[in-house]
Design a protein that fits this description.
The protein starts with a helix and ends in a 7-residue tail after the last helix. Helix 1 packs antiparallel against helix 2. By secondary structure, the protein is mainly alpha-helical. The chain contains three helices and no strands. The mean pLDDT is about 80. The longest helix is centred in the N-terminal third of the chain and has 64 residues.
Length: about 110
């Protein structure tokens, strides 16, 4: 009886070890999914505001272009702001989201 109990304990220890390894792998998998979901949510929340800012700056830029010679300094400042916004959007776009950028009509690489 003592021998059978020891053998049973050994089997249960092995089963427990396998279950803990499986739980670890499952946890890592879930954490990756949550991380990707978090990135997508941040992208969906933040980028539309940045695009609105970019559109406003583009509109302002078109107005400034009409009076280019007198507004060179302001033009440079607006272009710098647009570059900062585009770089911010670029950081938020991962490789799987580049299809979205191409679908919106943007032909240049960010």
């Amino acid at each position: 009886m003592n021998f059978d109990l020891s053998l049973l304990a050994d089997y249960l220890t092995i089963i427990g070890f396998i279950v803990s390894i499986g739980t670890l792998v499952f946890t890592i998998f879930i954490n990756r999914k949550i991380s990707r979901l978090r990135e997508k949510i941040f992208f969906d929340v933040r980028v539309p505001d940045l695009l609105k800012q970019l559109e406003a700056l583009n509109s302002n830029l078109l107005n400034i272009l009409q009076d280019f010679e007198r507004s060179k300094w302001k033009l440079k400042q607006d272009v710098k702001q647009q570059i900062v916004i585009i770089e911010s959007i670029q950081k938020k776009i991962n490789k799987s989201d580049t299809k979205i950028v191409h679908q919106t009509g943007c032909r240049t690489r960010l």
